[in-house]
């Protein structure tokens, strides 16, 4: 299936002297016309840059390379463009950023909007590489060489196409390149020192064996040292446990002592509170005792005796009044019985009067007595409470004394235990010091062994790195040997190519080139042949002509025919746009007309860059369709 590529539009956003410049191209012939310095070469380079990018040179070369030459004049920071094209009837747009810091390229299918991946981009452009582009579809004139020089150029171009499918590689230079490559690989990869590296590998193995023996001995010493440390540590832990047990006992007794002391302080505080209360009660009792003394009482017993006496006195008085009242009533009754009414009523009146006075005085005395009894009861209650408080105080005082005795005994016990513990501790330092000293010695030995083992491990790492380096070097040497053999084989094959010019590619190249030279020359030269000696000749109807016998214009036609033939063979079923930069300078009008007619008939799209008007005049005269773009 034939696949055709057509460039539709160039957009030089920021490129060289152009800023936002659009150029539309069409199928068939396209003439881009412009005077010198108008930008034809810039557009030609832009197409190349869009297809393959622009790589910046290094060092001094960067000042004169293509990248620097076509940086935008007015906006160096902007360096970009796009190209619309069609492949197999599908429309695409390629956007490229040329600036090194942000270099990028993306291809979008305009028919469905899909963004192509890098792999899909490679597949899209097929076998179009920069080298094949320069050797086939990008055509310029052969230059200002003499006819003899041109024949040599054609011979070299044809020979290299036959052998390598690339036209810029000189066979002699290729052979020289391969020999230099072989020499460089041998030198850089030390292929000739393989035996030295193998001996280094054997020495390394011996070092590793010795190092493993030393490391094993150190590990055994470390194992013994660890066991010894564990024994010493066990003994030390046992001594510490005994000492700690004694200290814990002492600490427990100190806690108990503190608890008793706290309790003692609480009791002392309570004792002080009770003493304060007792003092207050004593003041109350004092005041009451003064009150009691005013009535002739001084003690609680006196109070109780007075209360009993008053009760008895009250009882006697009551019985006296009752006896008097009964006597008077009896007298009145006698007078009434003996019929002395006046005397009887008089006695009754006197009796009632005395009774009333008695009752009144009795009530007053009862109230006074009641108040006095209440005072006595209050004094009694105060005395009882004072006695109870005094008893409680005495009980607390006894409790405090008991707690003090307990605390003193506990303190005595603690002091005794402290003396015993200190006595034991005083005996322990020597042993502990010995153990600690021995532990320090063991630790120092351990650190020394650890350091020695670390050194051995470092040696292991160094040996491993050295082993890896030697292995890598031997691997590189092995790979280099393979490459050297490949280079030697390539040299052998390259020499064979020169004597097999009539191989399949050479035959096909002759056939294709003959087809194009016949069309381009209008049948004047029907066949183009390269022989075993890479001599180029063309056949007419009557004779065979060597290339050295031909004119410069005919040589240019042969050059174009070879490029067209190479494009067919390299790209096979893929048709690429043909770019011709001032390619017809050596052509006369007749040759130009036949060549342009052939391009119009055989090439899907041609872009001709020229500063002359001859091409346009010839096309108009020959009525060959074309499109012109003026810069």
Overview of this protein structure:
The protein has helices spanning 40-52, 66-69, 118-125, 130-135, 147-164, 171-188, 194-294, 300-337, 341-499, 504-520, 552-571, 589-602, 614-622; strands at 3-15, 18-24, 28-33, 80-87, 90-97, 104-109, 138-140, 527-530, 536-539, 544-546, 574-575, 578-581, 605-610, 626-630. Helix content is 67%, strand content 13%. Helix 7 packs antiparallel against helix 9 (341-499). The protein is elongated. It contains 13 helices and 14 strands. Strands 1, 2, 4, 5, 6 and 11 form a six-stranded mixed beta sheet that branches. Strands 7-12-13-3-14 form a five-stranded parallel beta sheet, sandwiched between helices.
Task: Give the overall average pLDDT.
Answer: 77
Quickly count the helices. Answer: 13
Class by SSE composition: alpha/beta
Q: How many domains, in number, for the residues?
A: 3
| Residue share in helix | 55-70%
Task: List how many beta strands DSSP finds.
Answer: 14
A few lines on this structure:
With 631 residues, this protein is an alpha/beta fold.
């Amino acid at each position: 299936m034939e696949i055709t590529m057509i460039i539709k539009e160039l957009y030089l956003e920021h490129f060289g002297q152009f800023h936002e410049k659009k150029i539309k191209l069409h199928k068939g012939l396209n003439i881009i016309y412009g005077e010198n310095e108008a930008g034809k070469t810039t557009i030609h380079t832009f197409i190349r840059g869009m297809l393959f990018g622009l790589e910046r040179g290094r060092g001094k070369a960067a000042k004169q390379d293509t990248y620097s030459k076509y940086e935008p004049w007015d906006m160096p920071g902007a360096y970009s463009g796009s190209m619309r094209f069609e492949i197999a009837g599908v429309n695409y747009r390629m956007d490229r950023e040329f600036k090194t810091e942000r270099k990028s390229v993306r291809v979008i299918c305009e028919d469905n909007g899909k963004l192509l991946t890098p792999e899909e981009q490679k597949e899209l452009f097929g076998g179009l590489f920069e080298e094949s582009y320069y050797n086939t579809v990008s055509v310029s004139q052969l230059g200002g060489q003499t006819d003899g020089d041109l024949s040599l150029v054609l011979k070299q171009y044809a020979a290299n196409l036959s052998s390598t499918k690339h036209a810029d590689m000189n066979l002699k230079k290729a052979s020289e390149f391969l020999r230099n490559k072989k020499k460089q690989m041998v030198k850089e990869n030390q292929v000739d020192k393989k035996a030295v590296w193998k001996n280094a590998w054997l020495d390394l193995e011996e070092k590793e064996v010795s190092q493993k023996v030393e490391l094993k001995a150190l590990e055994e010493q470390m194992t013994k040292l660890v066991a010894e440390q564990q024994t010493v540590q066990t003994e030390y832990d046992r001594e510490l446990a005994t000492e700690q047990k004694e200290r814990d006992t002492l600490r427990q007794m100190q806690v108990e002592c503190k608890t008793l002391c706290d309790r003692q302080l609480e009791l002392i505080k309570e004792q002080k509170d009770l003493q304060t209360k007792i003092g207050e009660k004593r003041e109350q009792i004092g005041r009451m005792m003064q009150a009691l003394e005013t009535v002739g009482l001084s003690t609680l017993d006196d109070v109780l005796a007075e209360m009993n006496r008053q009760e008895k006195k009250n009882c006697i008085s009551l019985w006296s009044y009752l006896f008097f009242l009964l006597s008077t009533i009896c007298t009145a009754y006698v007078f009434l019985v003996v019929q002395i009414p006046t005397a009887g009523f008089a006695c009754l009146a006197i009796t009632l009067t005395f009774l009333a006075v008695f009752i009144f005085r009795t009530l007053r005395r009862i109230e006074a007595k009641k108040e006095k009894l209440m005072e006595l009861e209050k004094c009694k209650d105060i005395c009882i409470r004072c006695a109870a408080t005094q008893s409680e105080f005495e009980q607390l005082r006894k409790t405090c004394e008991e707690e003090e005795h307990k605390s003193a005994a506990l303190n005595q016990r603690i002091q005794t235990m402290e003396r015993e513990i200190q006595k034991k501790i005083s005996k322990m330092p020597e042993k502990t010091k010995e153990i600690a000293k021995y532990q320090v010695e063991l630790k120092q030995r351990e650190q020394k062994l650890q350091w020695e083992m670390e050194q051995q491990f470092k040696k292991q790492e160094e040996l491993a790195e050295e082993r890896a380096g030697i292995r890598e070097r031997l691997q590189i040497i092995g790979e280099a040997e393979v490459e050297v053999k490949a280079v030697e084989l390539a040299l052998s094959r390259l020499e064979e190519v020169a004597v097999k010019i009539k191989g399949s590619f050479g035959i096909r190249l002759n056939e294709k080139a003959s087809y194009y030279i016949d069309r381009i020359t209008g049948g004047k030269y029907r066949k183009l042949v390269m022989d075993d000696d890479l001599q180029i000749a063309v056949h007419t109807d009557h004779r065979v002509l060597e290339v050295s016998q031909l004119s410069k214009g005919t040589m240019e036609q042969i050059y174009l025919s070879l490029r067209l033939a190479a494009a067919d063979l390299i790209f096979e079923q893929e048709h690429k746009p043909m770019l011709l930069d001032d390619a017809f300078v050596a052509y006369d009008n007749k040759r130009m007309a036949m060549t342009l007619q052939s391009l119009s008939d055989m090439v899907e799209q041609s872009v001709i860059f020229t500063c002359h008007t001859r091409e346009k005049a010839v096309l108009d005269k020959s009525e060959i369709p074309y499109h012109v773009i003026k810069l």
